[in-house]
Amino acid sequence: MEPTPKESPEGLDLVRKEIDEVDRELLRLLARRFDAVRQVATTKRNEDAKAILDSARELDVQAHWVQDAESLGLSAPFARRILKEVLNHSRRIQEPLISGASEQVVHHLKVGYQGVPGCYSSLASAHLMATRTSATVDLGGYPTFPDVVDALQNREIDYAFLPVENSIGGSILDVNRLIVDQSLHVVDEEVWEVEHVLAARPGVKLEDLREVRSHPAALTQCETFLRGLENVERQAWFDTAGAAASLEAEDLRHVGALCSEEAAQHYGLVVLERGIADRERNETRFLLLSLEPEVPDQRLPCKTSLVFKLNHHEGALAKALAILADSGTNLTRIESRPQPDIPWEYLFFVDVEGHKDSPNLSAALRQLRSCCNHLRILGSYPFRTKKQEQHLDVPAPVALPPVQPSCRIESVPETPKAAPKRTTFKIGNVTLGEGTFVMMSGPCAVESREQILESAAMVKAAGATILRGGAFKPRTSPYAFQGLGLEGLRYLQEAGRTYGMPVTTEVMAIEDILAVAAHADILQVGARNMHNFSLLKELGRLDKPILLKRGMSATVKELLLAAEYILAGGNQQVILCERGIRTFETATRSTLDVSAVPVIKRSTNLPVIVDPSHAAGIRELVAPLALAAAAAGADGLIVEAHPHPEQALCDKEQALTGEDLKQLMADLRPIVAGQGRIWS
Ligand code: PEP
Ligand code: MN
Predict the structure, then answer these.
(1) Ligand 1: which of 505, 549, 652 to mutate, most ligand atoms within 8 Å of CB?
(2) Which of 91, 267, 509, 644 is the most buried (most CB within 10 A)?
């Protein structure tokens, strides 16, 4: 057959040209948008007292953006991510224009950071300075934190840019101490998303590596991935980019470095693996420090950092905090640090929302000063750690758990009405909700490291994208296998990482929530716990998806109200799961209520999935129930599968084999395609 033009080499060139043209057009449009944003800033400049950030307008822009994106066939999460960057950049462009800072004639600034070019500090400082000032900026790396501060004190540099806390590692105490001991002022902050890659010299393969070097924090953050590499030693290095540089300098061919993608590129390395950190989100907060205070425009959303010492008597801290609370001030950070020279006396570091000169906060600070020994205002600066996604994805959480259904879920309607717009959310690289279909699969329980690794390989090969496996098992008999607990969580996480699949597992007790959340991407509430309201309330405070299973004798309305407990706490990422209910019928383990799927979909916008395994209880019945669920409009399935069902320690009668699962996926395809959904 003659190649059609687009398939021929010339055709490919044409398409690539078109892509290049579209890219240029995108850049031209962005430049046009930012020009308009600058004009808005000039107008706002003369507005007094009114806050500059127009949140209502932003929400409006966001709502239309997502709607327009969807109508063009673009994915909503992708569109949101792009808009988040655009809005963030727009805000930053406006700040200096509004406050007039850009008119101060500064042509050249020097900023010092700890590390070498390509390290996260250098990337984050470049990002912050690009929007903070129109001056040219020289960035310079120094070996240690005190070296950077010495350079500032000697006026070799205008600003020091240092990390102060990390979302995984916590507070960086040495930097907090330097700020106090050297009387530095905080003039800005930056938050940087740390994304480690494993890089090596060109031509080197993963199996050639005998050593991986990086900063100790990065090695710890990629623990699971590194453990999976056989015969590879870990070597602590002073800096992530420094590790990358050392590979280039010596042309080391048996050593890899954990560093940023940019550092890999900078030092002529190629990326062997991405997405290797134990946790998906790893953010570092940096402070821009100077010898002189700088006061931002009061109309910008600001944050203020304080440090104080308290007399050693009961209730001293509570009194200090009550002053802030009474003034309606929101605390964004509090931590204490012992004073090395005075054992058992502490300094408290507190960050609050607001500008130090605003009427509210300045009055509170005056009062606070009178009850503290030593209060220093480290500075007010633009607030950059606010979670944008909160505005983007969901309405603000309601303050107190309502007993009645809130706006998210309505009671089951008596008469049919239009289905609400569906929520979608991302779990790793899987999108769940409107327009997609997701297969979650794996064994009932994690039984051993080998078993869950083998299961993960099997279900992945069959086409599942989320791995299931219970570590804490709610067994009807106390003498049955209860799960491996924490050990099981670790194996499950490792298996998920190894095969690039987010993992879901059940949490049974409040005290296990943090451990489960640290290892799993979705926390499952089992049928037996659907009515455990204390557990649900705690899960409402978590920022992770919750898979809520319908109780064995719960009505749909009760399931929705259970979900409401989680939503009311602020966690909007709830997946509902129909898993069969107890009826007079005993031919199956439970009776799958297929009608629950369309019923639930009429009254809530949350994704609904179906577990045919626990409903059927019998291997041969799992597939027909799964097909029925898909046909009824379920957004996905959770199906038990085991590489050796006959040896399964739990629910072996209902476990599919790898082959069964493959066949089921093939049978589901026409149904899912017929609904216009895509597999995710
Ligand atoms: C499970 O999914 O492992 C489970 C125990 O299911 P259910 O809570 O629906 O019985
Ligand atoms: Mn089971």
Answers:
(1) 549
(2) 267
